[in-house]
Amino acid sequence: MKKAQKKPGRPPMLTGKRTNIIKAKLTDEELKALIEIQKTSGLNRMELIRRRVLSKGAPIIINVNELLHTLDAIGTKLGRAGNNINQLARHANILNKQGQLNDQIVKDFNNLFSAYIQRQQELEKQLRHILRAMRLR
Predict the structure, then answer these.
(1) Closest alpha carbon to 93 in 117, 112, 109, 113
(2) Tens of pLDDT along 111-121?
(3) How many domains does the chain have?
(4) Are both 68 and 131 inside the same structural domain?
(5) Which domain holds residue 54?
């Protein structure tokens, strides 16, 4: 007896199958605007329209590739800043051991370091905001 061969391809959806079709007419300008939003969001046209129509409140469309590229660049810059801070602290420790560390330089460094920490905290706050917005999807 021959075994029944499986049909190649994706298995049929049991729930959540989209069977309804909606058509819309757009002007040339509207279509261009839709295509531009589609390109910047990285979503296909139907997913973009679904999110725009069905989301509660103002929809947030995020281009994941662009976000990851930007986060990678931010991480690189933070790493460089951390290296610079370590080098300055090491140099300050050497000067302090030699008794050549100026009090004004220490005050200036502390002020700049405080500003750096505040900016880093603001960055963390914005990243949490982006992550929360992405989780709502």
Answers:
(1) 109
(2) 989 999 999 99
(3) 2
(4) yes
(5) 26-61
Q: Which residues of 96-129 are buried (b: 16+ CB within 10 A; e: fewer)?
A: eeeeeeeeeeeeeeeeeeeeeeeeeeeeeeeeee
Residues 76 and 30 in one domain: no
Residues 45 and 89 in one domain: no
Tokens of 136: 């709502």
Q: Is residue 100 located within the same domain as residue 69?
A: yes
Domain-embedded: residue 12: no
Same domain, 45 and 68: no
State pLDDT tens for residues 31-85. Answer: 998 888 888 777 888 888 888 788 776 666 677 778 888 889 998 998 899 899 9
- pTM beyond 0.90: no
Q: Are 67 and 130 in contact (CB under 8 A)?
A: yes
Instruction: Compute the distance between CA of residue 119 and CA of residue 121 in angstroms, rounded to an integer.
Output: 5
Q: Give the pLDDT confidence of 13-35 residue by residue, as tens digits.
A: 778 888 888 888 999 999 998 88
